[in-house]
Automatic annotation (TrEMBL):
Keywords: Membrane, Transmembrane, Transmembrane helix. It comes from Homo sapiens (Human). This is BCL2. The chain crosses the membrane at residues 20-41.
């Protein structure tokens, strides 16, 4: 129980932040891929 009380509340914001940054990175990668693909097809 002490382990949960110690790490439960403190790890939660860290997890939320990492998940948010992960989603941001994924969306940026997706946009970058679309732009690259569009430029590639455009030059072709």
């Amino acid at each position: 129980d002490a382990f949960v009380e110690l790490y439960g509340p403190s790890m939660r914001p860290l997890f939320d932040f990492s998940w948010l940054s992960l989603k941001t990175l994924l969306s940026l990668a997706l946009v970058g891929a679309c732009i690259t693909l569009g430029a590639y097809l455009g030059h072709k």
